[in-house]
Amino acid sequence: MIKGLVAVFLAAILTENYVLAKFLGICPFLGVSKKLNTAVGMSAAVTFVMVLATAVTYPIFMYLLVPAGLDYLQTIVFILVIAGLVQLVEIVLKKYMRVLYRSLGIYLPLITTNCAVLGVTMLVIEKSGEGYGFLHALINALGAGIGFLLAMVMFAGVRGKLETADIPKSLKGLPITLVAASLVSLSFLGFAGLVDNMLGLA
Amino acid sequence: MNEILLAVIIVSGIGLIIGVVLAVASIVMAVPTNEKVDAVRGELPGANCGACGYSGCRAYAKAIVAGEAEVNLCPVGGKDVAVKLGELMGVEVGDVEQKVAVVRCMGSKDNTERRFKYQGAHSCRSTTNLVGNLSSCVYGCMGLGDCIKVCPYGAIEVCNGVARVITENCRGCGMCTAACPKGLIALVPVKEQALVRCRNLHKGAMTRKDCSVGCIGCMKCVKVCEEGAIEIKNFVATVDPKKCSACGKCVAACPRGCLTPFIP
């Protein structure tokens, strides 16, 4: 049981990293990774929303939509819940973390349309079945958030290096950022099969 | 039919619950915002140039509302903004003097000589430290455009090797005056006046070698000025815009051509 949870957690961070392996949530990944402190703040907010969203959407899907035979409402209900949660996070941040709220700017309401959050809640439903329950879903969401944090912090470092690098004029700005993102993503391919082999599950 | 109804009820029910939670949260965790700051900020130009002495328009708006700052400090907005802010805050508006930037150099490629062909960093500041100047006049404009880079309004251009302020676009924020390593850019009041477009501090004989229009400190303008508005200091003439009556006598008397009428 514990082994399974650890496997889910590590897999969500490394092998199935939502940004670098599944390519979800690229918008904030490119938009807020310029500075380390905003990257960390954004990741914390996303992690919070992911866990909370999973905690709310999973029971709604399992105990409300499935019994009523309304599986097809999954997407719209999940979006509704995520939008509400993001609003809640925004209110909380505005009250207690004013500086973070200002530095996140437009990207905070954009978590609403961050496909990584929707992806976490929806892909975990697909996986649900024998031995993969509510607790697994929560751990997966937490792992996905920390994976997002890892990707953001790594990429903020890469972009810091890019600032001082001598880049050809035609590649300056977004092009070199995308190239760098693809290389970071490539490096994450190296984690394939790592978690299962490490825990002896393969 | 029944299924459709159920779907509608479930989705709107979830929406309703979320709505109530959000409404409660927004009341419980309401942040007291000062609407006056937003109103004042709305009137300010939003260029965040810092010419008022605060770190941006929002900081200045806060200072105004807190009563720490006068309403007439924004040179970009000028009189219009000061009057509006005065109405908002219910205070008297002091004197607002609109200013524009001028480049006090005429050492264009025709008037000075290029000392060498320059290929390197496109920055006045670093090139000044490296080689002094590109042209024969060490005090003159380098034309590499540090002022253009800092101007928030695109009001400066380099024309034949010398920077030039496009007066219609200039809002007088003064960013360029600090950016010029030669100190060639000054803010002058918007009025007709005579202007010495030279800052060459060499003695006359040397200035002649530097530039064909440089000020040699010959005192002719000082003698013809009836207002006593011109003085020679460090071998270069300056006009006091407050005293200048724009009569044009000094312009006619100048043998070099750097004393020019300035018509905004």
Give me some keywords for this one.
heterodimer; A: 202 residues; mainly alpha; B: 264 residues; alpha+beta; 3-methyladenine DNA Glycosylase II, Chain A, domain 3; Alpha-Beta Plaits; two-stranded antiparallel sheet; 8 strands; 13% strand; elongated
The geometry of chain A reads as globular
Largest sheet: spatial strand order of chain B: 1-4
The tally of helices of chain B reads 10
What is the CATH-assigned architecture of the largest domain in chain B?
2-Layer Sandwich
The biggest beta sheet of chain B, please? 2 strands, antiparallel
Secondary-structure element series of chain A: HHHHHHHHH
Overall spatial form of chain B: elongated
Domain count of chain B, please report it: 3
Radius of gyration of chain A: 18 Å
Question: Biggest protein-protein interface?
Answer: A-B, 19 and 16 residues
Give me the Rg of chain B, rounded.
27 Å
Tell me the CATH topology of the largest domain in chain B. Answer: Alpha-Beta Plaits
Which percent range describes the beta-strand content of chain B?
Answer: 5-15%
Spatial gap, N to C terminus of chain A: 16 Å
**Helix-and-strand structural type of chain B:** alpha+beta
Structural overview:
The complex is a heterodimer of chains A (202) and B (264). Chain A has 202 residues and is mainly α. Chain A has one domain (2-188). Chain A is built from 9 helices and no strands. Chain A has helices at 2-13, 26-31, 36-65, 74-96, 98-104, 115-127, 134-164, 174-188, 194-198. Chain B folds into 3 domains: 35-89, Orthogonal Bundle (3-methyladenine DNA Glycosylase II, Chain A, domain 3); 98-189, Alpha-Beta Plaits (2-Layer Sandwich); 191-264, Alpha-Beta Plaits, CATH 3.30.70.20. Chain B contains 10 helices and 8 strands. In chain B, α2 (35-43) crosses α3. The chains are: A mainly alpha (202), B alpha+beta (264). Chains A and B meet through α3 and α4 of A and α1 of B.
